[in-house]
Amino acid sequence: MHTPMIVGWGHTQFGKLDNVDIEQLIQQAASEAIESSGVDPLDIDGVFVGTFNGGFVQQDFGGAMVGVALPELRHVPAVRLENACATGSAAIWTALDAIMAGRMKRVLVVGYEKMNTLPTAEIGNILLKCSYVKEEADIQGGFAGVFGEIAKAYFERHGDQSDALAAIAAKNHHNGMDNPYAHLRRDFGFEFCRNPSDKNPVVAGPLKRSDCSLVSDGAAAMVISSERIDGARHTPVTWAARAHVNEWLPLSRRDPTRFEGAALAWNKGLEQSGLGLDDLGFVETHDCFTIAELLEYEAMGLAPYGQGAKVALDGISAADGKLPVNRSGGLKSKGHPIGATGVSMHVMAAMQLSGTAGDMQLPNVTSGSHGAVFNMGGASVANYLSILRAAD
Fold it and tell me: What domain range is 40 assigned to?
């Protein structure tokens, strides 16, 4: 059995990058990943690309774009993967399967997205393609409207959770101040995130602008190898476990206030690794909206159903808490370029576990630590969990 490990990574700035096209994004992230890995580009066996697109840019055929950005890879087999907001993780999973099957030894994974090309309303309509269009296409506000409905249902069942959502938003923006790649490095504080205002209006249901992740451009990349590479800049990082669980796409067929697919992914990953939550040094989780992070606390087992607010309000998920969540700033501060997100989350985790996270570095994360990444597509429809550790 081949044991894949992340041996190099690269990451662009996330943000509204008007003067940067997709070839430049790919070139920057992929070149940095290859250079840091110590792998000769001619020794890369396959390229796995994650991009959602859906109409953000006219150029599709993402797999072929890596060869355009990096001519030395023009003859390397390349494929594009898409799985909504978990597109990046889908690319990673396919790359891992190729290595574990013995078909490839060294692969490049690139996730990218150029979203800020259209008016906000059109961006929202494109993202709604990731909902069950037959029943949910007319929800106002795009995916903010979808998660606004989820938040409304949760509030009706468990009471007003606005304090907890504001605490999550404030935490992630505070954490993002230390992330040089973050789209929005601004420490808004609890009061701003808690109270509606002209600068923080209500967007959908009980969700305010501060509860919503950002529309971002950016790319992230990593080189995965079946063996250590001489000359790699960083300690390689490997998987202790990984799980992928799907769930109903139509919200009408399930309880949208319970992320059952996420809970199953967490249960499978923890069982496979032989670990518990107490064994993890940190989690990078998919906070596309603050209500999503709250429901993910419950899915991972940090709190019983209906009590996720305590995790945020008691500081359990803070950088100095029992289990730091989204030390990178999460999607909320770092940004959410759809195809890049899953890859970016794994890069952030690899930086922590290799001790190269700079100002984001958690002091209690050492060479023997484990960390987790949870990335989802849709409203917890495609659920990917990685439990990672520094390679022996």
Answer: 5-117+216-225
